[in-house]
Amino acid sequence: FGEYYSVFHKDFATLLNPFLKAKDFVGEIGCGPGQLSLYLTPLVDHLTAVDIDAQTVGYLKRTAQLRELINIDFRVFAAEELQDVLVVVIMSTLVHCLLLWNTVFL
């Protein structure tokens, strides 16, 4: 699955790009180490990356700082605790599951 994950996030961001506006406030729920967040952040006004795992969010935060991304913030808590007003919410884990389901079972 390594190759799949290395291109999935870039391809998914490319697929989403026509639907995103530069002024959008986007939230990625279940961001993990942020592969998708890192591709989406340059496309929108602001991105909020949310995950329940502090270690993966910390990794994303360090990576974003190295890339000098300033329009991203990081939250460590369960998705149902999110109270921000977001224009777009992305749950790429669901897309992973559907794609894998299609590959494995269909």
Task: Tell me the layout of helices and strands.
Blueprint: H1 2-16, E1 25-29, H2 35-40, E2 46-51, H3 54-66, E3 72-76, E4 88-90, H4 92-105
Overall description:
- The protein has 106 residues and is of the alpha/beta class.
- Helix content is 45%, strand content 18%.
- It is built from 4 helices and 4 strands; from the N terminus they run αβαβαββα.
- The protein has helices spanning 2-16, 35-40, 54-66, 92-105; strands at residues 25-29, 46-51, 72-76, 88-90.
- The protein has a 4-stranded parallel sheet with strand order 3-2-1-4.
- β1 (25-29), α2 (35-40) and β2 form a beta-alpha-beta unit.
- The two termini are 17 Å apart.
The largest pleated sheet is described as: 4 strands, parallel
Please report the number of helical segments. Answer: 4
End-to-end CA span: 17 Å
Could you give the count of β-strands? 4
Strand arrangement within the widest β-sheet reads: 3-2-1-4
For the residues shown, what is the average pLDDT? 80
Structure in a nutshell:
With 106 residues, the chain is α/β, with parallel strands linked by helices. It is globular and about 30 Å long.
Primary descriptors:
about 110 residues; alpha/beta; four-stranded parallel β-sheet; globular; disordered C terminus
